[in-house]
Write a structure and sequence with these properties.
Length: 220
């Protein structure tokens, strides 16, 4: 209720306008194949409370369902991978909190629909942690957080089934490359690509242990 009352002022102050669900679906239908891939990455630089990202995640989870209809452990692993492929930036703290919660609830709801039970505590913790690193409060135009630090996004790469490898990249470096470099960041055609330099790297760990891996990595 509070958000609806302050909507007009937020539009004036921040230009905040949410895309209607029908238009979200129409736009995502244009890239439907990518939305169905668990590992295809999406960035929403003005994510609001997650209209686009939530729908992308729902579509990815349809693929997770098809692949793992009778295997809860693999379902949870692939659902976490799907969530780890989504990135968002927004100026407003309440939007960031709402987006993270919304995406986690999308995973919980899909899991409950499939297995008639809640997501395991470990899986929910891992997904929430990944979303806390992927959905960032900041300014997508200045490449900086609200604390005036460079926006950094982690890349989560699956290894040997149950392991995840995390490497952190500066968002600004990736965008600067897109404007000035001749080599693409990604190619499915076997062509040479630009390989950005990570600003942080973590040893591989089990996908359920990613929060502990960061704590261990930060320890002196």
């Amino acid at each position: 209720m509070v958000r609806s009352v302050t909507n007009r002022q937020r539009i004036i102050d921040h230009g905040e306008v949410f895309t209607p669900p029908g238009l979200v679906n129409d736009m995502l239908d244009l890239v439907a194949h990518e939305c169905e891939r668990i590992d295809s990455r999406f960035l929403e630089p003005a994510c609001g409370d997650g209209n686009f990202l939530a729908e992308v995640l729902r579509r990815k989870l349809v693929t997770v369902d098809k692949r793992n209809a009778h295997n809860r452990e693999k379902w949870q692993r692939d659902a976490i991978l799907a969530a780890s492929s989504l990135y968002g930036i927004d100026l407003l703290a309440d939007n960031i909190a709402a987006c993270r919660d919304r995406l986690l609830e999308v995973v919980n709801a899909a899991h409950a629909a499939r297995f008639k039970t809640q997501l395991s505590e470990e899986a929910a913790r891992a997904a929430a942690f990944i979303l806390s690193r992927n959905i960032v409060q900041g300014d997508a135009l200045s490449f900086r957080t609200t604390n005036d630090r460079p926006i950094v996004f982690p890349e989560w790469s699956p290894i040997n089934g149950s392991l995840l490898k995390r490497r952190d990249f500066a968002y600004g470096h990736l965008l600067e490359h897109a404007h000035h470099a001749s080599l693409p960041l990604f190619s499915d055609l076997g062509k040479d690509v630009f390989v950005p330099t990570p600003v942080g790297e973590f040893p591989p760990c089990h996908y359920l242990k990613v929060p502990d891996a960061e704590a261990s990595h930060d320890r002196p």
